[in-house]
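Note to self: keep these together.
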Amino acid sequence: MNSDRILDELARVLESRKQAPPDSSYVAGLYAKGLDAILKKVGEEATETVVAAKNGNREQLVHETADLWFHCLVMLAHQGLGPDAVLAELGRRFGVSGIDEKAGRAAQT
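Structure:
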């Protein structure tokens, strides 16, 4: 699959799983279990990603990062968001110093 389309296609599939019976797919089952189950998976995958990076296993790091991104996309879709929202935010930050961007967020609260 063309890497430029992977996020869009995955977002489309994740959205379609919202209407699927819980026993028809892994994602449909996660949606049926609710936000807490999805967040638990995001946390688990984040921890596994950190461990893979700490261990220096590049292949495992890529695998775990893919799992983390996938579950983050499930979380976003559950909340009515897609990858475009995150990409737009990254685009907004592009070319802005991380220090300035963080200071701007602090000023908003």
